[in-house]
Amino acid sequence: MDSQIPGRRSHRKSRNGCMQCKRRKVKCDERKPGCRKCEVYEVQCVYPGEDNELGNTVQRTALRKRPTASSESVTGMATRTIHTPPFPRNLGLFDLELLHLWTTETYRTISPRQELQTMWRVHAPQVGFSSPYVMHAILAVTALHLSRLCSTERKQQCLIEAQSHHDAAMQAVVPNISRLIEEQGTAVILFSWLTCFYSCGRPHTRDESLIFGRDGPAAWLTFLRGNKVILESSSDNFRAGILAPVFANGERITNLRHSAPANEGEKYVREMRNLILNKVTDLQERQLYLDIVELLAKSFVVVLSSDSRVAETTVVLAWLLEVSDEYIDFLRRKSPLALIIYAYYCVLIKKVEWMWWLEGLSHHFMCEIYHALDRAYRTQLQWPMSEIGWTPNSQGHEMLLP
User: Fold this and answer.
1) Are 311 and 303 in contact (CB under 8 A)?
2) Per-residue confidence (pLDDT) for residue 157, from 0 to 100
3) 3-class SS at 60?
4) What is the mean pLDDT of residues 244-263?
5) C-alpha angle with apex 215: 214 to 217, nearest 5 degrees?
6) In which element (H, E) is residue 390 found?
7) Rounded to an integer, what is the distance from CA 39 to the centroid of its chain?
8) Quick one: which H or E segment has residue 398?
9) Closest CA to 247 of 396, 115, 336, 93
10) Is the dihedral of CA 131, 133, 139, 142 positive or negative?
11) Can you give 196-248 as a three-state secondary structure string?
């Protein structure tokens, strides 16, 4: 007797198919660089994991290559042409709606500072007109933002469009990343920031890791730190261009943080400092952790003593840019002390969750850290857990404190 359920076709499930086929719930032939179905439907074909792979490539390539002074004009725009897929001519009303939302609302959610808002509202779309992957990235972030604002019935459409634009941007950049960094540095930096916003703001499953990537740091963190490498390797090329406000703000934040007396932040990190002194016997490793904690103490002083009602995202994210690669490696390898330090950092992340694309990250991070730590170390999380309002329930999931 045939045991197959009538009306259903049996087929081998494809677990390694592309993102487009997964969303359409159809079988993917897993052909690379593009599967047959994406070729037929004329859509960009992107496979899972390419985000993180590209992020690592951004950082590696930036370390190897430094743009020359002649590679970009004073406006920060590339003078040479990279052959990337053109932006589709058949833009629909929904894409136009997204672009309108970006220029009227979404750009405000990137930074509270007016000079940076102007850059995102005016100059970033201008770059996107000549570098389509930047425009796709803008529309991907805006579609995510709209999904937070619109009705439930329309939310799924927004998420699908966001993923589609993100995939298109990734597909345009992946095969050209080395040349793009060298020849379109400004566009790549804008793309990387937008990709970071997208990676943080998209819906996350409960068991998804945002700290521990498969082969390195999570994609959003790699893009964030990769930008620092590009900017520092060719800062003079960008200071006179559209990124000039970014440099001015970065210098302001650096001066603010480094002029903050670390001893005023001692009360926030005292237990963590004592733990390092008691647990770490290797002098070099001990100093590495102590230096990172000192940077964190300065960040606490700036953020928690600020007269402003809202913390600046740049102030909080600056710590992630300043910590050493060795610390990021300890974090990736789930070193207990690295995780506990990051748990304290979650208190600062909580202060910038007024930004929709950062909302909920402190709880997600803390959940990851809690379950990655041995029980003996979990007692060290009591203060940061209470500060962000998170505690595990009996099933090991998060529960808000009253």
Assistant:
1) yes
2) 92
3) helix
4) 83
5) 85
6) strand 390-392
7) 29
8) strand 398-400
9) 115
10) negative
11) HHHHHHCCCCCCCCCCECCCCECHHHHHHHHHHHHHHHCHHHHCCCCCHHHHH
Instruction: Give the SS3 label for residue 348.
Output: helix
Statement: residue 344 has pLDDT above 70: yes
| Close Cβ partners of 46 (under 8 Å, ≥ 6 residues apart) | 18, 19, 20, 167, 170, 171, 174
Cα 226 versus chain centre, distance: 11
d(C-alpha 389, C-alpha 350), whole Å: 10
Alpha helix (H) ranges present in 80-238?
Answer: 93-104, 114-118, 124-130, 132-149, 152-173, 177-183, 185-201, 219-233, 235-238
Q: To the nearest whole number, what is the mean pLDDT of the chain? A: 80
Spatial contact of 273 and 290, defined as CB atoms under 8 Å apart:
yes
Q: Is the CB of residue 72 less than 8 Å from the CB of residue 186? A: yes
Query: pLDDT tens digits for 310-343?
Result: 678 888 988 998 899 999 999 988 999 999 999 9
Give how far Cα 238 sits from Cα of 69, 72, 126, 314, Å. 9, 8, 16, 18
Six-digit token pair at 229? Answer: 């490498």
Of 43, 164, 24, nearest to 95 by C-alpha is 164
Helix (H, G, I), strand (E, B) or coil at 100: helix
Mean pLDDT, to the nearest integer, of 26-38?
75
Nearest residue to 349 via CA among 381, 318, 316 = 316
Which residue type does 376 have?
Answer: A
Report the 10 Å Cβ neighbour count for 40. Answer: 8
Amino acid identity, residue 101? L
Distance between CA atoms of 229 and 359, rounded to whole angstroms? 27
Asked whether the beta carbons of 132 and 85 are under 8 A apart, the reply is yes
Residue type at 51 in one-letter notation: D
Tokens of 170: 């990734």
Give 70-125 pLDDT, tens digit per residue: 334 333 333 344 445 555 555 688 999 999 999 999 999 998 889 999 999 999 99
